[in-house]
Amino acid sequence: MDETRLKPRVDTRPKVQRPHLHKVILINDDFTPREFVVVILKAEFRMSEDEAHKVMITAHRRGVCVVAVFTRDVAETKATRATDMARSKGYPLLFTTEPEE
Ligand code: TYC
Question: What is the pTM of this model?
Fold first, then answer.
């Protein structure tokens, strides 16, 4: 057999793409009660009391805090739902999203 002949090589690796992830960001304000922020974080982001309190206090002290990372649709839906929940109670609490690098 002629060993110098090259076998055709077919790349069989699946060309899968990782989904682009987006951060949900909690923004501080001067009016929303701390306990209400904790309630929203627990309800929409399934956080424990401790986790929710840490995220709330970080946003309170630093101005913003990353809540979690999701695919774009999920991040936008959760940020909108959480913001709307606050609006329905008359609070200016705001959740935004931004793409992760
Ligand atoms: N700063 C608010 C207060 O002192 C509490 C608060 C924390 C509001 C985090 C928004 O994202 C926030 N009542």
Answer: 0.86
